[in-house]
Design a protein that fits this description.
The chain is of the alpha+beta class and 275 residues long.
Length: 275
Amino acid sequence: MAKNKTIKVDNFEIILFSQNMEDYISLTDMARFKNAETTGLVISHWLSTRYTVEFMGLWEQINNPDFNITEFSNIKNESGSNGFVLSAKQWVEKTKAIGLISKPGRYGSGTFAHKDIAFEFGSWISPKFKYYLIREYQRLKADENDRLKLEWNLQRTLAKVNYHIHTDAIKENLIPSELSKQQISFVYANEADMLNVALFGKTALQWRTEYPNVEGNVRDMATIEQLVVLSNLESINAVLIHQGLTQSDRLVQLNKIAITQMKSLLGNKNLKKLK
């Protein structure tokens, strides 16, 4: 059973607990509004009325497949007659009812009823009591829903943060870094190596030195995004050469373009479908 919850109705504290996703309210606490000394008798008087027996029987038939209809009929026939007395224990034992629960223990003990039944007991106590009981119960459930929404939003936010952390970690290994002054000033033996540095941050020889046991070359290991950007860089580089830019100037521009395009492509949903 879940931890007990409490609501206050007309300065009377009333305990609730949940079982099988259903809320049960203490009839014992509610009965104190009538008579704090004889709560058991108060509950028994209410149970002994014909209307209560009929209502309880209807509730059980709808919600309890194991409800003993035969015993219920016997109790119903006796209800309302002089001298008829029905306790919560008798009702549960004879009919296998689930709407009432006897909860032992030092704290929160007594007779509990499903909220539907407890509200009916509230009506019998007084219309005013029932009104405040329902209002306080609704307030409690609203507070619980607000907490659940807050927890859900927090979990969803954390999931988004974790997703971004994960994707950012992947991107850090794909998006090229800005080149150092030493890389820019270096004279590369061929244009292919310059493009490798602009996109991958290293020459073919440097990559081979880092990965001596891997078959192929740096371009063979490239992702779809990197290959798309590399193709663009080759076309752009041809235009920059035609414009007369030096190798170091072209390298700076191509590196910036590579960074921008990789960031864009890594978030492209259509490109992901090709993988």
